[in-house]
Amino acid sequence: MKITILGATGNVGSATMREAVAAGHEVVAYVRRPDAVEKLPGVTVVAGDVDDPIGLAAAIRGADAVIAAVTGPTKDTTFTQRTLPAIVAAMEQAGVARLVQVSAFGVGDTADKASWLARLIYRTVLGKFFADKAAAEGVLTDSTLDWVIVYPVNLKKGAAVKDWAALPLERVARVPGLPTLPFANVAATLVELAGSTRLDARRILVTTASGWKGN
Hints:
- By secondary structure, the protein is α/β, with parallel strands linked by helices.
- Helices cover 33% and strands 25% of the residues.
- It has six helices and twelve strands.
- It has helices spanning 11-22, 53-60, 79-94, 116-123, 127-141, 183-195; strands at residues 2-6, 26-31, 43-47, 65-68, 98-102, 146-152, 154-156, 164-168, 172-174, 180-182, 203-208, 213-214.
- The strands form three sheets. An eight-stranded mixed sheet has the order 3-2-1-4-5-6-11-8, sandwiched between helices.
- Strand 4, helix 3 and strand 5 form a beta-alpha-beta unit.
- Helix 1 packs across helix 6 (183-195), helix 2 (53-60) crosses helix 3 (79-94) and helix 3 runs parallel beside helix 5.
- The longest helix is centred in the middle third of the chain and has 16 residues, at 79-94.
- The radius of gyration is 16 Å and the shape is globular.
- It starts with a strand and ends with a strand.
């Protein structure tokens, strides 16, 4: 399978690139700084900006799926609203349907399932940053893409844990406390979703094995 990864120099994107290569996939890394991409076999690096739909469409063309793990600085309150429409337009132009969009738990109505402490953080420290993501996600419902949005909990560096949960958001009633998961576990979920419909849902929570309560 051929996967185009946006944001391959970031924590989630670089982990996803390694996971995709390990799984035997062909990868195109579309990045602003090609020199910052980890050198791996099976990876083609293409320089470009995610808000350039023409350059992005050229990089996407021929892919089976796109994983968008790109994010801007927390002080940029319009980054996702500027870039996600360009990503959607580029994919529609290139004729590539499958988009795995990385968001964050706490964005939009997902915050309703969080603990009181987490909600406080999401509404204060991350309020404007998360509001940008929530505002942008509406563009997907109006698109022709086969999209899925992934909402990881708090993330950290480190080796992947053996057990974690990736499940449709509608099955989740609460996410207690502040669960934290390694980037590598999220990467494994993203690569699986790029080529599988096992988790056939539009919105997916990724958390620790015990970091959720069902309805």
